[in-house]
Write a structure and sequence with these properties.
The chain has 215 residues and is of the alpha/beta class. It has 3 domains: 1-35; 37-138; 176-211. The chain has 3 helices and 7 strands. The protein has helices at residues 2-36, 140-175, 177-211; strands at 38-44, 56-59, 62-73, 76-86, 96-102, 109-115, 133-136. Strands 1-4-3-2-6-5-7 form a 7-stranded mixed beta barrel. Strand 3 (62-73) and strand 4 (76-86) form a beta hairpin. The N and C termini lie far apart (181 Å).
Length: 215
């Protein structure tokens, strides 16, 4: 009987341990779900080049989450839906705004959330949406990516115009030396004739001086 009682005690102890472990797993899973349950959607109209899944999400520079999904908006192909997952303890306010920023010189991007006043209500999801939507705005990175082709085109046009102006100037300069050289030659010949004429005049004067009789 004593041996059987020991077995019952051991069995009960094992069952209690298992139940405790099961409850712990459920609690941890629940806490993890709650922590990972703060999901938001952001819609960008510009390019999201450089943004990848698992990219950081920062709130005023503080890391609060990551990007979990990047897709074209099925309701509007002109927009890109970026789904993020943030710490549930981070309050996202209605006046918060999301934008893309570059991570140094790597070419990669991350989501930066700014704004969010203390007096603003917490952002809630709309009835027709699955998750709350954070407003977005075009960032400096998007402006650069979007305007790069136009800037390159303008730079090419300016370079072509400069080359054309320089080419016209060179052609004009090449045409100018010939008349100038002719003018120099003509002036030189005139100077030679004048010099010769002066010499003849001097000779005549000398001859006249020799022939003349002075008192």
């Amino acid at each position: 009987m004593e041996t059987r009682a020991n077995y019952v005690a051991v069995g009960a102890f094992v069952i209690v341990i298992l139940i405790g472990a099961f409850i712990s797993v459920l609690w941890l899973s629940s806490a993890q779900f709650q922590r990972e349950g703060a999901i938001y959607d952001i819609y960008f109209r510009g390019s999201v080049s450089g943004l990848t899944e698992s990219a950081p999400v920062r709130y005023k520079g503080v890391l609060i989450g990551r990007v979990i999904n990047i897709r074209l908006d099925p309701e509007n192909v002109e927009r890109i839906r970026v789904r993020i997952e943030v710490d549930a303890a981070t309050p996202i306010k209605q006046d918060a705004v999301a934008e893309l920023e570059a991570q140094g010189i790597t070419g990669l991007a991350f989501v930066q959330i700014t704004g969010g006043s203390n007096a603003s209500p917490v952002l809630e999801k709309r009835e027709d949406k699955r998750y709350p939507i954070i407003a977005s705005r075009q960032s400096g990175l998007e402006e650069v990516v979007t305007s790069a082709p136009e800037l390159f085109k303008r730079a090419t046009q300016v370079a072509d115009r400069i080359a054309l102006v320089l080419s016209d100037a060179n052609r004009h300069d090449r045409r100018q030396p010939e008349p100038n050289r002719q003018d120099r030659d003509r002036h030189f010949e005139d100077d030679v004739r004048d010099a010769r004429g002066g010499d003849r005049g001097n000779i005549a004067v000398e001859g006249f001086s020799r022939d003349a009789e002075w008192p």
